[in-house]
Amino acid sequence: MPALFILFTRNILYAAFALMLTFLGVAGIFIFSGAEFVAITRIIIGGGFFLLFLKAIMQANFGAINWIAQSTENAPTSLKNLGLVLMTDYVLAFEVIGILLLIALIGAVYMAGAKRKEVQNAN
Question: Most buried in the list 29, 38, 84, 110, measured by CB within 10 Å?
Answer without folding.
Answer: 84
